[in-house]
Amino acid sequence: MWDDAVTGYDFGPSHPMDPVRLALTMELVRAFGLDRSVDVVSAKPAGDSTLRLVHREDYVAAVRAASADPTHADQDYGLGTLDDPAFAGMHEASALIAGLSVGAAEAVWRGTATRAVNFTGGLHHAMPGAAAGFCVYNDASLAIARLLELGAERVAYLDVDVHHGDGVQTAFWDDPRVLTISLHEHPRTLFPGTGWPEETGAQGPAEGTAVNVALPAGTGDAGWLRAFHAVVPELLAEFRPQVLVTQHGADTHFEDPLAHLAVSLDAQRAVQLACRGLADEHVENGRWVALGGGGYAVVDVVPRSWTHLVAIVAGADVPPATHVPPSWRDLVYARTRQPAPRRMTDGRWPVTWRAWEDGYDPEDRLDQAVLATRRAAFPLRGLLV
């Protein structure tokens, strides 16, 4: 899913969410010829009826008003804040990104495609009635809500952004048709301060449909992958989703300026590959919608990470040791006056980790975090701790 107009989602020159990260990603996708391995399509911006699947009518009206006149942004709706400054055209750009994710969901549900990717999406912090965390409309929630509207009975949402996927969890907190899984830095040390293991969904039929892994600050490749494989495969095998929606924020990377994990591009790529394998194994007809998310090392990390994601969705994997095309490196310097990376990962491939079945270390903070999640959520799903 791509439309040049997504770069209009622009909070201004001093904001960390620089839309150049989207343009550079698409140019790197083209430099590798991946746009010839997939159907590159746009979609209509999400209309009011679609936005209201998740967002309150008064909030959409407030976004429209701030979009038309940023000086009248209403901070009661999270608009005009340091995180979410109002800008002209905000509604149109946000609705377009949402429309691309909804279009991706419709394509996989209707069988137009088995997999779809919208790396411009993954704006997972937006709430039903407020902007938050650089996110205006929650395209991930809207895509899931559209799947439910089309008849899906089981949708799994997996979020590996460094920040908790709080907006998506909130949207489906009491809906047993949606399983949300989020691996993120511990809420004690990072925005939004939610995503504790004890957050497991509303009491009743939805209890056990929210799963949170709160990772210690400083977690690196081996711990991140250990946590992922200790939690995600069993849950997907039990839930048997009809569609898997994944969010791949690149801000887990050790170079990201806004967080405190120490994950490499190699590990991010390993999780992307794992998601493809899990979709093929556990999801009806292999339906997979992959989204972007956070990521504020906008030259060194984001374009490479999401180009790997596009390649993996397309089944045209870019080997880790591949050199970055010189034409793209020249483009990066022309656009940003920054030197571009020379190869497609950080040189840590193959990444290894210790399987959960190999034993629990009670003194290891990572193992403590994983066990806390399994104890809180797994029994509610009929799984062994």
Question: Could you explain the architecture of this structure?
Answer:
Keywords: Acetoin catabolism. One of its GO terms (molecular function) is histone deacetylase activity. Belongs to the histone deacetylase family. There is one protein chain. This protein has 385 residues and is α/β, with parallel strands linked by helices. The chain has one domain (19-48, 98-381): Arginase, Chain A (3-Layer(aba) Sandwich), CATH 3.40.800. Helices cover 37% and strands 8% of the residues. It has eleven helices and six strands. A six-stranded parallel sheet has the order 1-6-5-2-3-4, with helices on both faces. Helix 1 (20-31) crosses helix 9 (302-314), helix 1 (20-31) runs antiparallel to helix 10 (326-336) and helix 4 runs parallel beside helix 5.
